[in-house]
C-alpha cells in the first residue's frame, strides 16, 4: 500500500518511531497533491488537509505492509483521521495513494501549515510522546489511547523540560552520567502510568551500586498559584474532591488548595497559571511571583511543581463554583484573610504542601507586596 504524507509524518524521526523496525524497508518519494493544502489548526500543532486551490507538498511512502498501515492507523487514529483514496503527482507521473483526512470536526483553519516551523517548535515533544504511544500498540485500543493522549503529551513535555533545565544544587557533583540504565517496565497504563525503572547509580565511595528497581508514578508538570489581594490582605482558595485523600481513607477528601493545573505542551508555566486562574476561579492576575520550583515527592514521583503567588483583585463577590465540565471539575472558591491563612497553616489544617509553601512565602514577602 502507498500513502501520501503531507504533515508531521514527513518528519523522519517521527516516521521511524511509528513504523519501528520496518522503516528501512519502505521507499519515500517527493510528491504533491493538487487541489489541496496543508492547513494549520487553531489551538493545535498538527495540520489538516483541505480541498482548496493550491498544491500540498509531501512524501509518497511506498511498499507499506498491512502491519505498517496498522501502526500508522493506530498513531493517526488518536488525532481523528481516516484514510481516503487520492491521486498524487510524482516525478514519474500520477500515482494512486491514500491520505489521512480529518474525520468530522470543529477545527478552525488557521492559515498555511509549515513543516519547518513545526519541527522547530514541536518536533521534540511529539517524538517523545510518539515513543510512548507506539509502546501501547497491540495492548491498548484506540479509544483508550485518545483518552490518555493529553497526559502522554504532558509527560513528554515534562521530560523535555527536565532535560533542558539545570537548577538543582548537587554538592556531590554526581549527574545523570553517574547512572547506568538497565531497563523500564510500565506496570500500569492509564491516564497516569506507573513505571518500574531498573538502574545502577554511583555511590559515595566511587563504586557503582548493584542494579535496583524503583517504582515511580509518572506525572507531568503543574503550575500552582495562590491568589493574593494585597489591598484587602486576603487570599482565595479553591476546594474540590481529591482522589489522593480519598484513597488514603481521609474523613474529608475535599481539599482546600491553591489554583492548579497541568502545563500543556507549548505553554510556559506562567501561561498555565493565568489559564487556570480563569478556568478555576474566573480570575485575572496582575502579576505572578515565583514561589518555588520543585518535585512533589522525588522518591517515587516525577511530578514537578511551578508554584506562584498571583496578585489579584479579590472583592467579596468573587467566589463561586467553577471548573471545566470536560474534566469533571466541580470547584468552589473561598476567601480567607492572611491571618486566617496563617492560623490554618500553623494548626496543620492546611494539608496541602504547595499551599503551605505559598503561605510561608507570602508571610516572608507580605510587607514588600504591600509596598
From TrEMBL:
Q: What residues does the Nudix hydrolase domain cover?
A: 218-358
Q: What CDD domains does the database record attribute to this sequence? A: GGCT_like, NUDIX_ADPRase
Which UniProt keywords are present, listed alphabetically?
A: Hydrolase, Transferase
Name it: Putative gamma-glutamylcyclotransferase
Family annotation (InterPro entries): AIG2-like, AIG2-like_dom, GGCT-like, GGCT-like_sf, NDP_pyrophosphatase, NUDIX_hydrolase-like_dom_sf, NUDIX_hydrolase_CS, NUDIX_hydrolase_dom
Cofactor field: Mg(2+)
* Keyword Transferase found: yes
- List, alphabetically, the Pfam families matched: GGACT (PF06094), NUDIX (PF00293)
Q: Which PANTHER family match?
A: AIG2-LIKE PROTEIN D
Amino acid at each position: 500500500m502507498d500513502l501520501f504524507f503531507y504533515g508531521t509524518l514527513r518528519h523522519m524521526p517521527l516516521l521511524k518511531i511509528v513504523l519501528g523496525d520496518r522503516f528501512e524497508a519502505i521507499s519515500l518519494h517527493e510528491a504533491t497533491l493538487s487541489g489541496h493544502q496543508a492547513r494549520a489548526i487553531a489551538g493545535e500543532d498538527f495540520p489538516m488537509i483541505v480541498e482548496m486551490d493550491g498544491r500540498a507538498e509531501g512524501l509518497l511512502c511506498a511498499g507499506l505492509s498491512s502491519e505498517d498501515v496498522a501502526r500508522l492507523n493506530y498513531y493517526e487514529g488518536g488525532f481523528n483521521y481516516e484514510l481516503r483514496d487520492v491521486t498524487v503527482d510524482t516525478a514519474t507521473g500520477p500515482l494512486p495513494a491514500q491520505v489521512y483526512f480529518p474525520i468530522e470536526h470543529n477545527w478552525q483553519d488557521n492559515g498555511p501549515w509549515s513543516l519547518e516551523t513545526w519541527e522547530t517548535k514541536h518536533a521534540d515533544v511529539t517524538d517523545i510522546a510518539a515513543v510512548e504511544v507506539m509502546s501501547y500498540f497491540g495492548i491498548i485500543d484506540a479509544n483508550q489511547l485518545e483518552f490518555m493522549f493529553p497526559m502522554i503529551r504532558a509527560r513528554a513535555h515534562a521530560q523535555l523540560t527536565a532535560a533542558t533545565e539545570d537548577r538543582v544544587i548537587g554538592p556531590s557533583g554526581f549527574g545523570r552520567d553517574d547512572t547506568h540504565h538497565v531497563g523500564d517496565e510500565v506496570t500500569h497504563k492509564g491516564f497516569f502510568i506507573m513505571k518500574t525503572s531498573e538502574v545502577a547509580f554511583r555511590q559515595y565511595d566511587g563504586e557503582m551500586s548493584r542494579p535496583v528497581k524503583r517504582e515511580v508514578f509518572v506525572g507531568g508538570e503543574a503550575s500552582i498559584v495562590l491568589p493574593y489581594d494585597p489591598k484587602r490582605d486576603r487570599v482565595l482558595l479553591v476546594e474540590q474532591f481529591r482522589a489522593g485523600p480519598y484513597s488514603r481513607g481521609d474523613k474529608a477528601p475535599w481539599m482546600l488548595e491553591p489554583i492548579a493545573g497541568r502545563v500543556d505542551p507549548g505553554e510556559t508555566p506562567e501561561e498555565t497559571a493565568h489559564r487556570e486562574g480563569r478556568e478555576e476561579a474566573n480570575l485575572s492576575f496582575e502579576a505572578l511571583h515565583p514561589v518555588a520550583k520543585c518535585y512533589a515527592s522525588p522518591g517515587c514521583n516525577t511530578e514537578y511543581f511551578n508554584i506562584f503567588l498571583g496578585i489579584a483583585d479579590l472583592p467579596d463577590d468573587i467566589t463561586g463554583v467553577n471548573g471545566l465540565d470536560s474534566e469533571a471539575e466541580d470547584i468552589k472558591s473561598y476567601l480567607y484573610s492572611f491571618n486566617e491563612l496563617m492560623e490554618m497553616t500553623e494548626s496543620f489544617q492546611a494539608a496541602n504542601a504547595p499551599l503551605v509553601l505559598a503561605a510561608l512565602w507570602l508571610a516572608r514577602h507580605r510587607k514588600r507586596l504591600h509596598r
